Amino acid sequence: xxxxxxxxxxSKHYAGATALHSTNLSVERGKTxxxxxxxxxxxxxxxxxxxxxxxxxxxxxxxxxxxxxxxIIGTLRRRIGYVIQEGGxxxxxxxxxNVLLMARHIGKPEDKMQNRLAELxxxxxxxxxxxxxxxxxxxxGQRQRVGxxxxxMLSPELLLLDEPLGALDPLVRASLQKDLKEIFARLxxxxxxxxHDLAEAAYFGDEIVLMNEGRIVQRGPVSDLRDxxxxxxxxxxxxxxxxxxxx
Length: 247
Ligand code: ADP
Hints:
Layout: E1 5-14, E2 17-27, E3 32-36, H1 43-50, E4 58-63, E5 66-67, H2 73-79, E6 80-84, H3 95-105, H4 110-124, H5 140-152, E7 158-162, H6 170-187, E8 190-195, H7 198-204, E9 207-212, E10 215-220, H8 222-227, H9 232-240
Parallel strand pairs: 3-8, 3-9, 6-7, 7-8
Antiparallel strand pairs: 1-2, 1-4, 4-5, 9-10
Helix pairs in contact: 3-5, 4-5
């Protein structure tokens, strides 16, 4: 089966600087692909290009064998869930309203939305009693669970996660990592996950894509990066996080 997302020779420049050099990448269906690399290496840019928050300067991106053009951006955004570090929740809306926002916007029947909401609370282990709270009244971990519910509301084919656990303390982070991994397996979800943490990448990634300075340096299972580095940067990056146990 073909990949769900295909980037072909995609590049992105900002005034005078290259955020992403000409890049090819495929995101396999039903797998978790992890983008990892130092801050500023182009990971978020790559996600934003896929969901078309920004336009590539060159190259093309296919989603489910269809070329992404401006005509399909509206429908594309319903087929892709996106979670960012702080959850990106609207502060003036309750957790419930945040989760239902897009579904309401496209006119989903109320009973279907409420059923889906109950299902998502169970899936993400979020208490229904907290749904009437505003983001400021929730903990960081709870906010991320709401962000995840919102992203999953319309059963997206692709889930993009941009450092979703980066702002959490270690215990909350570990518990959410475990839950997320179970959720992805249960949904057989296609996931593109950004982190700069090697242990997290190893925990989630069926495949790891290591980036540096706007380029993909090596991609493969974490064991390949550890045992068969193709570039000195790969060993440097892995050694810099030594002490991390790679499974
Ligand atoms: P990462 O997610 O790996 O930390 P980013 O994709 O956010 O990296 O950024 C890649 C590079 O592009 C960085 O050098 C960053 O400063 C630059 N960049 C990102 N967004 C913008 C922008 N809107 N304007 C100018 N430069 C940007």
